[in-house]
Design brief:
Shape: globular
Order of helices and strands: EEEEEEEEEEEEEEEEEEEEEEEEE
Number of helices: 0
Number of strands: 25
Helix content: under 10%
Largest sheet: 6 strands, antiparallel
Distance between the termini: 48 Å
Structural class: mainly beta
Strand order of the largest sheet: 3-6-9-10-13-14
């Protein structure tokens, strides 16, 4: 679990992040997080098939970067840092089928440990060594990514408070990246919403969003069976 807490379960070592094995709580080494370098929201945690934990963080201090970190069971390592800013965040993470970590938040430039700075707006990919921008990224509005998910098609879906993805102007903060370009997913959230989080499970996409508009609309397939012997055609209205 992760969040804005200290001394979890009465343990001074369990600041901002802790683990539970079913019976006891324990610290993950010495917590690398502090009051100005918050872990952010708990959905900024992913675990790979080797039980390596990756986390984002949020910084509310102009002199401190937000960071992408990993915990390998014994050591914390910083993988990527944002450019310093009044507020910077690496908040949402997902693991692609190719082992690439996709992450989003609030940033315009990133520096991998041991590498050079890369311009990236709100969303990027990390392959274990280098950081790559996803086209022109996201912009407009608050230019903030709150949630991402990697779907079964190998696409990345991104939600948040933004109005532009690549060269697309959007009516809601929801867009997809297919590895080459940005696209509009076939869901319409009315009322100019903020998309807070999402996850794909067993082929179904679940999305949480804030909106004062009417319910969302999504495309679908329907089979119309003609039980007669005369040609007939469905009418749409």
């Amino acid at each position: 679990i992760a969040g804005s807490f200290t001394n979890w379960n009465g343990d001074a070592a369990q600041d901002y992040i802790a683990q539970y094995n079913g019976s006891i709580w324990a610290a993950l080494g010495t917590s690398p997080f502090s009051a100005i370098d918050l872990i952010g929201d708990p959905h900024g945690l992913i675990i790979d098939s080797s039980d390596v934990l990756y986390t984002g963080s949020q910084s509310n201090d102009a002199g401190t970067s937000a960071k992408l970190r990993k915990w390998d069971g014994s050591t914390w390592t910083t993988l990527v840092a944002t450019a310093n800013g009044a507020t910077q965040a690496i908040q949402a993470l997902c693991l692609g089928a190719n082992g690439v970590i996709y992450f989003g938040g609030l940033f315009t430039a990133l520096t991998p440990t041991g590498g050079s700075a890369v311009s990236a707006n709100g969303v990027a990919a990390y392959n274990g060594t280098t950081v790559s921008a996803l086209g022109a990224g996201i912009s407009g509005g608050a230019a903030y990514v709150y949630g991402i998910t990697c779907n079964a098609k190998g696409e990345l879906l991104v939600g948040g408070a933004f109005t532009i993805a690549g060269d697309l102007t959007l009516s809601d903060g929801f867009a997809g990246w297919n590895g080459f370009t940005w696209f509009r997913p076939d869901i319409d959230f009315s009322g100019g919403p903020v998309v807070s989080d999402m996850i794909e499970l067993f082929g179904n996409l679940y999305v949480g969003y804030q909106s004062a508009g009417t319910p969302a609309l999504a495309s679908g397939l329907t089979t119309a069976t003609n039980g007669g012997s005369t040609a007939a055609y469905p009418r749409l209205s």
